[in-house]
Amino acid sequence: MTEIIKTNDLLPPGYADAIEHDLTRTNFLWSYIDDVTSMYFGNNSGMSHVAFDTGGPMSEWFPFIKPLIYSIEQAHKQKLEKLFRIRVGFLTQTDQPKYEYNTPHVDFLWPHYTACYYVNDSDGDTMVFDQKLTDVTPEAIGINETILKDYTDKTNFTIADQCSPRKNSLCIFDGYRFHASTKPRHHNRRLVITVNYI
What we know:
The structure is a single chain. The longest helix has 11 residues. This protein has a single domain, classed as q2cbj1_9rhob like domain (Jelly Rolls, Sandwich), CATH 2.60.120.620. By secondary structure, it is α+β, with helices and mostly antiparallel strands. About 20% of the residues lie in helices and about 30% in strands. Strands 1, 2, 3, 4, 5, 6, 9 and 11 form an 8-stranded antiparallel sheet that branches. Strands 8-7-10 form a 3-stranded antiparallel sheet.
């Protein structure tokens, strides 16, 4: 898949509202992480909640969010064969004048798709770049985090497309594409559910 799929009004409005309500409850469990892109960068702090990881469900919230997967299948027009991760990201507002976006990265070092579901209306686009993991080394063989960090430090990334965080919208792209989240400037929070799969 080379194109970037964008879909609005992905879920029934009541379900979209319920997801936003759940994620903004005071007792919803968030974990602080030094870097929302990779633990090797350390300069893109935010909050995270992992609902599903490669070993299976990771939180009691997973059954409620699981139907999102079927809507992603419908938008992608293909059946999801294997789920790798469902992670909710929470970025807060920035006032840094020179800030552009977080560090370009890929979520996994093997073939996959990345789907970003936007929980609330916000700013802080997802930047999807022209550069791919296969640009680092053909077929992404022998890649590790040190090689990736060196590549991202030296590369002048060019933007292929941007996905704006509008409530109940979805953006799907090849997981080998480097991408980056952006902290909002005009809203106090940006909530995104990222689903990685093949």
